[in-house]
Amino acid sequence: MMARAYKLGPLRKTVNAVIGGLLSQGLPVAGKTGFLLTTKGRKSGLDRTTPVNVVETGGERWLVSPYGIVGWVHNLRADGVARLRRGSTTETWEVEEADATTAAPVLRHYVRLLPVTAPFFDAKRGDPPEAFAAEADRHPVFRLARSGA
Questions:
Q1: Residue 137 burial (CB count, 10 A)
Q2: Which terminus of the chain has a lower count of CB atoms within 10 Å, N or C?
């Protein structure tokens, strides 16, 4: 069975708006992994905000795109700065995109931690990291590093 394709339809827009509202009020969503990610639009230069999940593994924090190469991925690739907010707390991070070998265990951890995203992956929860490495080009992973900004 092939992974499901992501489509930002009316239902997903509504869910994102509800989750975004909860996160903006400081309420935890998906445990403590939910944040509002703000990036600078690569074409418009305007701020773009979307709910995301940040996972911790290997002593580091990671931003994963479970739904593929979406707008915020393009924006991070162009600008390299992510602002993560929950409630009144905002953190600024510099990001570095991980290669497939580095991304594999992060993707595996992500699918195990947030199983709602599993249908968007060909690799399954119990698969070895190599199966997730094969998906790294479709599910970008970014390491978060504290920014001096």
A1: 11
A2: N
Q: Tell me whether residue 17 is in a domain.
A: no
In the Cβ-directed half-sphere of 9, how many Cα atoms lie within 13 Å? 4
Range of the domain at 116: 30-146
Q: Is 4 part of any domain?
A: no
Q: Domain count for the chain, please give it.
A: 1
Q: In whole angstroms, what separates CA 29 from the centre of its chain?
A: 14
Residue 52 in domain: yes
**Closest alpha carbon to 57 in 27, 102, 100:** 102
100 in any annotated domain: yes
Residue type at 111? V
Q: pLDDT 10s per residue in the chain (149 long)?
A: 667 777 667 777 777 778 788 788 887 776 778 999 999 999 999 999 999 999 999 899 999 999 999 999 999 999 999 999 999 999 999 999 999 999 999 999 999 999 999 999 999 999 999 999 999 999 999 999 976 55
